[in-house]
Amino acid sequence: MEKCVDLHLHTTASDGSETPANAVALANRLRLAAIAVTDHDTAAGIPEALAAGEHLGVEVIPGIEVSADYNGGEVHIVGLFIDPTSEALRRVTEWTRKDRDRRNRLIVEAMAADGFAIDMDTLTARHPGSVLGRPHIAEYLSEKGYASSVKGAFEKYLAEGCPYYRPKQLIPMEQAAACLRASGGIAVLAHPLQYGYDGKALEAFLSVGKACGCSALEAYYSGYTPAETEMLLSLAARLGLGISGGSDWHGSVKPHIQPGSGINGDLHIPYTVLEALRGRRP
Ligand code: AMP
Ligand code: ZN
Ligand code: FE
Ligand code: FE
After folding, report:
1. Which of 30, 134, 221, 260 has its CA 20 to 30 A from that of 245?
2. Nearest C-alpha to atom 19 of ligand 1 is from which residue?
């Protein structure tokens, strides 16, 4: 059987439902050769994942996912092969986590003022040590019956354009890529088809990403059709970008996505993808 990888996974260090050790154990049961743990704005899950990987014989790539500004909108940059103890990375993640705190508070206080039974202390206590974001709020709202599901809570309250949406402050894409590279890693343009760009606008985004210091894009991603993946593979080749891919698994927060295999088995990322990325390390 061909060796497969998944280079985009979330754990309880951010908004995934499984601990880093459980994520590695699941990857092992699914016979994945390598995974990258890429939590939002934190490297806190990496030591546990590395230890579990060593124990079970799963290769664990230290990663992270940071949010950044492109043309006034939010885009995501995945860092791979990062040093989780890097000072450059710590400075950025501390800043982004403070901003997340500020923003979570604004959302929760606005909801509480409108009569929702929600407060920051309860939320924090439900997820000790996790970097909190909208998915945690959405999960709570759905458990309390304010929405039918996490997705429903986003659509009703939390998505952009909804009454309780509050923006994050974003670092420029250049700064995101620079801090990932300074930490010994590579910067990857995450899920490039999630931002509403196609044609020339997509190509412009990818070119600017490359100019900002990103060295690859995710051509393999849960829900991308074979034609979309082919299109991204050829754009990457033309622009001189490398190829990455991952499921963006979050556990029960996004129950339709499985590690390695994505949605209904639509993903299959060969180990050679990881080997080629290794060659792009600074
Ligand atoms: P935050 O970083 O707090 O803005 O939350 C972003 C997270 O919420 C990402 O993991 C997204 O995949 C997830 N997310 C964004 N929109 C939705 C949605 N409509 N339904 C479910 N999850 C979403
Ligand atoms: Zn997430
Ligand atoms: Fe993302
Ligand atoms: Fe993600």
Report:
1. 134
2. 154
What count of other Cβ atoms lies within 10 Å of the Cβ of residue 210?
19
Predicted confidence (pLDDT) at residue 282 exceeds the cutoff of 90: no
How big is the CA angle at 177 (ends 171 and 178), to the nearest 5 degrees? 95
Burial 120-152 (b: 16+ CB within 10 A, else e): beebeeebeebbbbbbbbbbbbbeeebbeebbe
What is the distance between the alpha carbons of residues 136 and 16, in angstroms, rounded to a whole number?
A: 9
**Ligand 1-lining residues (CB < 6 angstroms):** 15, 40, 133-135, 150-151, 154-155, 159
Q: Which atom of ligand 1 is nearest to the CA of 155?
A: 19
Protein residue with least CA distance to atom 22, ligand 1? 151
Ligand 1: centre distance to CA 134 (Å): 6
Beta bridge partners of 244: 218
Residue type, 148: S
Angle of CA points 170, 92, 131, to nearest 5°: 80
Nearest CA residue ID for atom 5, ligand 1:
134
Amino acid at 95: W
The ligand minimizing its distance to the Cα of 133 is 1
CA of 37 to the centre of ligand 3 (A): 13
pTM (predicted TM-score) = 0.97
CA–CA dist 157, 147 (Å, integer) = 9
Nearest to 122 by CA among 110, 111, 108, 134: 108
What DSSP element (H or E) covers 28? helix 20-29
* Residues in the chain, overall count: 282
CA of 77: how far to CAs of 62, 128, 191, 255, 271, in Å?
A: 14, 25, 9, 23, 21
